[in-house]
């Protein structure tokens, strides 16, 4: 297949997954982006990738076919029927690596979105991008908001062995595999993200999780995660409950954070300080970033509570709106 363009620019938002109670299912897109430029080589004999990196990871990320964006782009090109082309990838990375802000999800979504934009005119097929990204990542909670924006709740549809889909009256069949639902978020919601200087791999964070949890803890999280879409919704400010109180309850967790706290004690200490003062603080993704969800401009109060962490020189903070667009491409 001949590409429809020789140049594609991709913009992918950072994400924060789990949000306390929504372990491996809930994700939120943030107004903070990596920007990537793909330019196909004019020489058909040149099938190599040249990678130029600016910003986060410029001294650590590979610059060959092992780069996650490159390997994902190659795989997606095969899926969309594109021939193998040489290309130049130039990135402006802002999302911190291995901190819990979705850098791996960003790389996967960017590679797939670029391949889709080279393969076809018009709007990109977000459903196709999500399905391939989720299958590569294996955990859709970060890739879903990167694709769609806003708040997403994702799941792996479990159907009987040998059944590929199930008929839904009046609707398309529900297929086996990954799915996501998107929810609108109140524009007054802000996410304050505290970023430490140290990293934590997702694999390491998963190794400390138990194989089983007490039934009461599972029920605890079910009740809290059910609050999240409502606590973040456009209607939250019109209800009788204080929306910040709803956010606080909705981010309570007994499934994963308590088992991981020893891997990131400074993060856990910051969460305890913020939650002791009523703020909806949680580990962002697998950590070690800390995300604080709140309504209104509480930036100064939140920074004051975190003053000791910030004064150490090992932490910085971003105050970010919620992103509503997801991945964007420009040919």
From TrEMBL:
Residue span, GHMP kinase N-terminal domain: 68-150
Domain GHMP kinase C-terminal residue range list: 248-305
Keywords recorded for this protein, A-Z: Amino-acid biosynthesis, ATP-binding, Cytoplasm, Kinase, Nucleotide-binding, Threonine biosynthesis, Transferase
GO BP: threonine biosynthetic process
Chief location category: cytoplasm
UniProt xrefs under Gene3D superfamilies: 3.30.230.10, GHMP kinase, C-terminal domain
Uppermost EC category: transferase
Highest taxon of source: Bacteria
GO terms, molecular function: ATP binding; homoserine kinase activity
GO terms under cellular component: cytoplasm
Pathway as given in its UniProt record: Amino-acid biosynthesis; L-threonine biosynthesis; L-threonine from L-aspartate: step 4/5
Catalytic activity: L-homoserine + ATP = O-phospho-L-homoserine + ADP + H(+)
Database matches in SUPFAM superfamilies: GHMP Kinase, C-terminal domain, Ribosomal protein S5 domain 2-like
Protein name: Homoserine kinase
Organism: Bifidobacterium tsurumiense
């Amino acid at each position: 297949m001949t590409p429809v363009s020789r140049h594609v620019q991709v913009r992918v938002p950072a994400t924060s997954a789990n949000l306390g109670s929504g372990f491996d299912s809930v994700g939120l897109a943030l107004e903070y982006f990596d920007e990537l430029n793909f330019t196909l080589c004019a020489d058909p004999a040149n099938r190599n990738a040249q990678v130029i990196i600016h910003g986060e990871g410029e001294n650590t990320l590979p610059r060959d076919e092992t780069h996650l964006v490159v390997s994902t782009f190659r795989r997606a090109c095969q899926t969309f029927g594109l021939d193998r082309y040489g290309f130049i990838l130039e990135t402006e990375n802002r999302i911190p690596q291995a901190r819990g802000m979705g850098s791996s999800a960003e790389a996967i979504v960017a590679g797939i979105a670029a391949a889709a934009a080279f393969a076809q005119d018009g709007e990109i097929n977000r459903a196709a991008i999500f399905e391939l990204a989720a299958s590569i990542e294996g955990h859709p909670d970060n890739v879903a908001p990167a694709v769609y924006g806003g708040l997403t709740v994702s799941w792996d549809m479990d159907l009987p062995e040998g059944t590929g889909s199930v008929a839904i009256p009046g609707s398309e069949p529900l297929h086996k595999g990954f799915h996501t639902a998107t929810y609108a978020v109140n524009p007054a919601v802000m996410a304050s993200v505290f970023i430490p200087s140290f990293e934590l791999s997702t694999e390491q964070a998963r190794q400390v999780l138990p194989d089983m949890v007490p039934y009461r803890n599972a029920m605890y999280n079910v009740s809290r995660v059910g609050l999240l879409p409502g606590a973040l919704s456009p209607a939250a400010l019109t209800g009788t409950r204080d929306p910040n109180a709803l956010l606080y309850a909705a981010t309570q967790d007994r499934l994963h954070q308590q088992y991981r706290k020893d891997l990131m004690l400074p993060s856990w200490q910051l969460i305890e300080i913020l939650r002791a003062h009523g703020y909806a603080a949680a580990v962002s993704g697998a950590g070690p970033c800390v995300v604080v969800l709140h309504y209104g401009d509480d930036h100064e109060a939140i920074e004051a509570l975190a003053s000791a962490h910030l004064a150490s020189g090992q932490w910085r903070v971003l105050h970010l709106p919620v992103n509503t667009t997801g991945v964007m491409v420009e040919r």
